[in-house]
Amino acid sequence: MTDTLDDCIVFAERLAEEARELYAPYLNTAPRTDLKPDRSLVTALDHAIEAHLRTRIEDAYPYHGIYGEEGGTVRLDAEYVWVLDPIDGTAPFIAGVPVFGTLIALLRRGTPVLGVMDFPATRDRWIGAQGRATQHQGQTCHTRACGHLGDAMLSTSNPDFYAPEELPAFQALRERTRWRIYGGCCLAYGLLASGRTDVAIDAKLALYDYAPFIPVIQGAGGVITDWDGRALSLDNPSSRILAAGDAERHREALDLLRHAMG
């Protein structure tokens, strides 16, 4: 696996660079937008980036599977499957809020073993790989210890994403923590890996929205699961995720969620 993972890390970084190049002409321009059937926003750039990444993967690894937000799935039964979100945070991208990024992950037998989170507007990049320390801008990064949940900084992408039955869980965690950060999108999970925040929670997500977070956060010393404490994978593509930089705070947050959800 080591040789394969080394090669895939280099390849995934190259994909991230090429996605940045495609972004470049649009970073200061409001793009034309369309609505998908689920009422979420999409741009021509979403489609263009994913199409480019898929072509590159098919050329380099024709026996690997692909799971993309815009282009669907192929060969999900393959040992290795690439998971792509060309623009995670399309609404912030349209609004010019620089928290959007390209997310690239590699699954092995359904488990994320490689994650790249690339942010073209800020030029931040996190790289996480199974069994290795997470890198941010080429330097090892770590989550931070948090002695009490009451001292924690919590992030969530958007409270509007929670279904009515999920809101009590979010509210319980919101009330227990000291500070809240809203609207950080995928960038919030990179910042958690770098020890800038303590807990992150989200709902209404798909696997492509968070697959890279898993090796990135784990490789930085943190914990990320679904709201029941189960590992996130192709076999458990939960729409609800919870991450923490401190394992004890993750356990405490899980207990809060379980109690709130009944």
From TrEMBL:
Enzyme class: hydrolase
Pfam families found in the cross-reference section: Inositol_P
Cofactors that this protein relies on: Mg(2+)
Enzyme Commission numbers on file: 3.1.3.15
Superkingdom assignment: Bacteria
GO molecular function terms noted in the UniProt entry: histidinol-phosphatase activity; metal ion binding
Binding residues for Mg(2+): 69, 85, 87-88, 209
Gene Ontology biological process terms in this record: L-histidine biosynthetic process
Protein name: Histidinol-phosphatase
Gene name of this polypeptide: hisN_2
